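Notes from the pairing session

We agreed to fold both candidates in a single pass and log them together. This is the raw record for the first candidate, unedited. Please don't reformat it; downstream parsing expects exactly this layout.

Candidate A
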Amino acid sequence: MKVTKKTKLDKLLKSKKAEKILMEEGLPCVFCPFAQHEAGELELGEICERYGIDAGKLIKTLNKKL
């Protein structure tokens, strides 16, 4: 899977490896009940913007390690 800013959170949360990377990068949504409910609609780029996370760096890391 190629990760982009448009990748939905639910796609990433299917992978334990991706989940670990998201947590390491400080993404608070990984265990948030609201995010779990809305994961099919939340895009990685939007989440990064909302929480001040460098989307480019995170996407590069995800694509490299997944």
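Candidate B (folded immediately after A)
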Amino acid sequence: MSSARRLLIVNADDFGFTRDVNAGILEAHERGILTSATLMATGAAFEDAVQRARSHPSLDVGCHLVLVGAPGLPESLPELVAAVAARRLPLRDILRAQVEKILGAGLQPTHVDTHKHTHLLPWIFRAVAQVAGEFGIRWVRRPLPLPGVDSLAGRILSRYGLRMTDHFAGFRLTGRLGVPQLVHLIRRLPTGLTELMCHPGRCGEELRRAPTRLKESREQELAALTAPEVREALASSGVRLVSFRDVEVPEA
């Protein structure tokens, strides 16, 4: 991968959350710039997402690992931290089971990230990396750019022969990613490989009943990902869309 190029992976989180979210993700892939999605093994619409992924092999699929907000798991991040600190939560077993469910559905995930970005916590990042390494999944989402986090993450990933992108974007735009924000991001994209996290979807009855703050904003993100102005920004800026499976990973 040449550092002089500007490569962009556009990844939708929450694949499998509801059927209307799944529909919006596929629409963003077919009509827009979305290149990959991470699948929730715990999602209510998991089977629907699997069927859609099988019928759309151009969509690169990863694992959206869930440690909060699902049956049998802590309800919040503070509860997760307390459970891990007290050693009440078998992290690796939970993560392995989710990866195995996705593999058992006949999909071959290329990357992993976590619901609510819980892998920002170092001990969770370590567990995620270990499980990804066990299953030969070579890409783990880059944590947020906080002091010491990048270097620690790099050391952990190196231990397991894994990689992360050069840059990560979209965390601060969650719930407010529109056309102007996306065009601005593309035009200012740094050299190297960037992952953009997004949450597109159709806001139907299932999503309206679901326990999430991201409802109408998913329609806004879908509109942005399929907007002609965004395609024009990619072309005029020389940014190339790729997926995780497009990017060669050197052997460890």
